[in-house]
Amino acid sequence: MSRRILSAAGASILLATTLSLPALSASASVPAADDTSATADNTTPSPRATTAYGWGQLVNYVTPDGSLAYCIDVQADWPSGATGGGALVGGIGATAATRDVGGMELAMLNAGLSQFGQTTDNDTAAAVAAFVYAFTSQNHPGYDGAIHYIGQKADGHDAAVTAAFNSIWAWVGENWAAAAGSKTATTTITMTDSTTGYIDVTVDPAAATGTLALTGAHEVGTGATSVAVGNGSRIDITGDPADGIADYDIRADGSWSTPGGYASEAWMYETPGQQRLARGSDNRSPTPFTSEASTTASTTFQPIVTSEMQQTLVPVGGTIIDHATCDLSPDSTSTAWRRNRDGEGVEVIWDVAIYAKLPGEDGLPDVPEGRPALGTAIATCDEVGDVMKASFPRPDEADGPITAVWSLDLDKQSDRTKSVLQGSWHDAFGLPDETTVIPRVTTKAVPSVMEGEQYGDTAHHEDVALYPDTAVQTFTAYRITDGQPVCDATTEYLTESAPIMIDGRTDIPGPTFTATRDMGPGVNWIERTYADDTKQVLLSEGVCGQEGEQTLFIDRPGQKLASTGFDGATLAAGAAATTLLGASPFVVRRVVRRRASRTALSEGIAG
Measured between alpha carbons, how far is 27 from 19 in angstroms, rounded to an integer? Predict the structure, then answer.
């Protein structure tokens, strides 16, 4: 049988001691079981203890303290008598066919017994027993000697026991002595955002183990600030900045221990006149060392919003609704929204204002100087993806394009929020997605009429391209009474016309009528634009008595106006009356839209 050595670490020692002794060769004879010569081991069968493990005569025994121990003396009888308590010894003395074992050999023996001795697996127990004989046998020491005993005493389980023995032999060769290496640990802290990161660990020697004490962070999942680590460990961490603090330190202080060599000792149990037993002490001399790492993380962030009007047109009585989604600027120092220690995101306050938008004002960097806000609102958000809603009643004092601007004023934030923000911010003025339209409609009513002449009204639309395809127009005339602009059921003269399809046209003429004296001084026109012929959504409505929306009745020269008492010959007086009522031939004026109840009609027309 060829000789096998432990490993580079243990080979030189074992070759200089145990393995330098005579060993079996492939052609050597194995001592007979009944051979009692001075060079033969005692192979008389010994009953196996009922609570021990192994095969044949390669077994372990239960000691008085409950631990498992192994026979040292190959030729002695098994320990059937009263076994004494264990004693920690620094050497194994020689007896018949048993070698002296001490120093480095005893350290190797201690390693194998400590690592594998307390087993309840039969194959492993038998392999440990053979391992002990490899050190203590005078006649068959070393690797080949152990294989000899497995062949003789493993009760036919040679293959499984040999495999287990080879594993033990290799492990001891690698681990009995102090681990080599520089005894250094490198801990690298990497933050993927302001509070999320990980720690990578590299240790030399690789067998070293340690504990990282975390400051300013904790382990993800467990919340622990003290984490056991080894070579190649990666610890996911979450930073713990104090509320209102923008920049904070994260530390990882390591306490490490590299395995030392096994002590040259073993526990020995004696049974008078019979086998001595041994077990490992588990004692090593670890070498401590430390490591440290730190980094500074910044939680400063820059919130922005992406906003969009929720309707293309704002109907009469409707509400302007704008939605904004919170996000982070590409220039944000931190790529994560800051959270407080209670887990809630930092709350940011936003100002929202709507303005009239003039032609050419698309995407201006600032609100035009002197432009008054038509409405303001406040909204808040506390994380990326939050959707805020701002709503405004349709303003009376403007029509046409209305645009919204969202802004963050640093000075309006709480102290805890202000300290972690990079600065103030506002979006551009006049962004197309941030613009809605109050429909603009002007009229060209026939300004004056005499009896028998035709009159009517025409509506002019500036925003017809935004209308739904179903949009319709109607016209209603109300008698001017006592010179007052009253347009209701008491003054209605010509009922609301049938809906007229707008169909993309800019100018929509209404029906025409023949003037008669019963129209009195004249009529006020009210044009109405609806989303469809159900007339549920009123897009635009004229204002009663508005200049340009009146048709005045005048007498022909020489006729008496019974209804007014004017002399028909005084045409100048009639003309003066016409002027007083605000009429001039074909006056075209922009109509200021009348605001109705916010709850009376639909809030908007979707684009």
Answer: 18
